[in-house]
Amino acid sequence: MMNAALLSVLVGSAAAFAPSQQGGAAKTSLDAMPDRMWDKMVDKTERSAAIPFLPRAINLDGSYVGDVGFDPFYLSSIPKNFAGFIQPPAWEEVEGIPTLYWMREAELKHGRVAMLAWTGWLATDGAFGPVPFRFPGAVYQDVSSSLEAHDVMVSQGSLGFMLFAIGFIEFCTSAVLVEVAKGENDREAGDFKLDPLQFLKGKSKEEVDTWKLKELQNGRAAMLAFSGVVTQAALGGTEFPYLVPYPEVADVTW
Q1: 3-state DSSP assignment of residue 210
Q2: How much is the pTM?
Q3: Across the chain, what does the average pLDDT equal?
Q4: What is the spatial distance between Cα 230 and Cα 118, in angstroms, rounded to a whole number?
Q5: Sign of dihedral through CA atoms 145, 150, 152, 156?
Q6: Are 121 and 130 in contact (CB under 8 A)?
Q7: Of 95, 100, 108, 107, residue with least CA distance to 78
Q8: Per-residue pLDDT tens digits for 106-154
């Protein structure tokens, strides 16, 4: 009887250290889990040219002009069909607009607007000559600065008309994006065939790419410049060169 009891204790102890079937099943379930989205968003075999301590975003492979691999938040790697921003998906089935195409379109558009905005802001404040460049009429000539122009133009009605005009242009130019989404147009992002001075006529692909790179880099600089000049003006430096007056350091000469 004693021997039987001792044998039962030994068998139970051995069973406690034996691998359980439940653990094996859990391991199998873990192996069957889907791949992480991160693995599809980056190229782990290559580092970002702009941020060498991060892996390269999968879509930033250098195929776009001006691609320096800068995307620390990997926004360009998010898989999304942006055609839904142009027309509801329920209307018709389309191939779609990929993320990188949409982002390049937006970057070029914002850069072009920023170049015009920065130039206009400085011109109306008299940065390019002794006389500010403004429309004729007291309502425009009497505005104290570009910073104050927004509120004045809203109350006067000019900004409402400008908003309507810009919205109309946006609506018309979005038609080509519908064609891109359908696969009916292989147009490059941001290309509206607008070259009235024929800068690109007869140029090789390398020369055209150089012009495109110049536009892109100037647009990026303009977005930063416009943000800076508006910030300086809002802080009190409303006159060119938009230096903020600090009373406590009034004796400092610039």
Answers
A1: helix
A2: 0.78
A3: 82
A4: 9
A5: positive
A6: no
A7: 100
A8: 999 999 999 999 999 999 888 888 888 888 888 888 888 888 888 888 8
